[in-house]
Give the backbone structure.
Amino acid sequence: MEVVYRLEEASVGDVRSGMADPPSYSAVRAAMNVLVEKGHLARRRVGRKYAYRPTVAPSRARKSALQSLVDTFFAGSVESAVASLLDLRSRNLDDEELDRLARRIEEARQREGE
């Protein structure tokens, strides 16, 4: 999806070219067809190929993907998902990032209290 968002419209070959370590052509085509079935992409025939374009705003796609990830790997627990992100050793958060996260948590706490 990231490649299609960046290019605005892309063929399977375009998507593969935009990936660092792409899977096979048929695997990318199959994934894109699933995204068409789910309504995330639309396609139109261009010669012998298809051109795909996004039908969902990136922010909505991110939320949907994150919700699916949280549901699948963390039994729906946002707390567990965030704790796992904070436990990642590959990236240490600096004080400024931690302060921004603390503000976001406080804003969520206030929204819940309304």
